[in-house]
Input
Amino acid sequence: MPHVEKGMAVGLFGGSFNPPHAGHALVAETALRRLELNQLWWMVSPGNPLKDHSGLAPLSERIARSEACVTDPRIKITAFEAGYRIRYTADTVEIVQARNPGVHFVWIMGADSLRTFHRWERWRTIVRSVPIAVIDRPGATLSFLSSTMAKAFDHARIDEADAPLLARIKPPAWTFIHGPRSSLSSTALRAEAGWRKSPAGGNDQPGDRPGKEPRRLP
Output
């Protein structure tokens, strides 16, 4: 895990990033600025438990491409989830908080993920464990009104103007952040560029098995 100090506000932004693109970078930069974070961890995951991994590029390649997407030194590219063989976000949050006492973490996700967040493994535990910032994405602006999570935790939603306070608010707490949006999609980029497949039987995706969690940005 990247080095942090007690008292810092740190965003957790995870996904398979297959491939990473400027839309992901825009979400990260928006979160840094609007939440007034000290760091943002760009967490390249072994793979989404519900997605077909036949088109998943090697972890090392996705890390390298992610590093090429960002210029802000506060954005830390990391793949520690693979080392811990983590499958689900709830486990990521638990381990990160246990190993970094005194650090204020915020989960960062795109609005398109909010629509299906209630299908994530132990999703209510996630909401009650870490504040959440939902960043606007094309076609998903109204998800904060219609999603199961938004309805179930409507009482915990804070005003967008108070986003800089989110990291230090006891969960459950979440906010929806409007702003510039990118129409780029990893799915579309793979289709256009013929994103190459991972070698069968490789070791770049430890712990990838079918699961229940449709996780993070596409």
